[in-house]
Design a protein that fits this description.
82 residues, mainly alpha, elongated
């Protein structure tokens, strides 16, 4: 059974799994706290299939600095690393 990380973490098991895979506390918490945490979706287009505008908006949502000067590939790389 997963350790209880308090009410700030909605899915403790998923949070621990993400931390074990090397994700930062911030990123693991953000993923574990999504409303559909723990459910597979698979309906989103891959980053390569998205437009630069879509990638920019996603980068804006997650707070990636310097996004306005990034190329499509730079946005993809930044989103994958964030």
């Amino acid at each position: 059974m997963a350790e209880d990380h308090g009410k700030q973490i909605k899915n403790d098991e998923q949070y621990e799994g993400l931390r074990d895979r090397g994700m930062s506390k911030e990123k693991a918490a953000r993923i574990a706290n999504t409303p559909d945490s723990g459910h597979k979706g698979g309906k989103a287009d891959t980053y390569e299939e998205r437009s630069v505008e879509d990638l920019y908006e996603q980068a804006k949502k997650v707070g990636i600095d310097g996004r306005s000067k990034m190329t499509k590939q730079e946005l993809i790389d930044a989103l994958r690393e964030h």
